[in-house]
Amino acid sequence: MRGAPGPQPVRKAPEPSGVDLARQALAAAREAARARGNAAAGKKGRPQQGLRSGARADGRDPMPLMAALDRLRTERGWEMPMAVAGVMERWPEIVGPEIAAHCEPERYEDRELVVRCDSSAWAAQLKLLAPQLVARLNADLGQGTVRLIKVQGPGGRPKRYGPLRAPGSTGPGDTYG
Fold it and tell me: Does residue 148 have a pLDDT over 60?
């Protein structure tokens, strides 16, 4: 039996030299550091991104001013108040110059627009036109933005200054002369 292998002499691996030992130590250190890094990243959920700057766009990049303002407006929920402020600015364009000369918007609260007129005749006229104006405003701002237009005539209620009032008082000027 000629090709049958017999007991082979066992060869010893050569003793590692200093360079080989250094490579093994470096590889072990790298593996340990990698394991520590993966464990730390697993605790945080994601690696730290704020410490590096890269070629790809992120939230820290500069942006045009109007884009930044639009982003701020959407984040803060200011779309509706800003749209209504724009309507108050464009009031003459929306209602026409004749009505705008006698009636002006005062405030917008709870989907109600309060408009003050300079005479009771114009207040009555605007009350008749209110449904058409609501439809026109909702077409401009979005459906359901303005639910009602409250029309006030000239010389509405007097302003009340302070929480305590004397009975029959007409305001701060009633004590003079």
Answer: yes
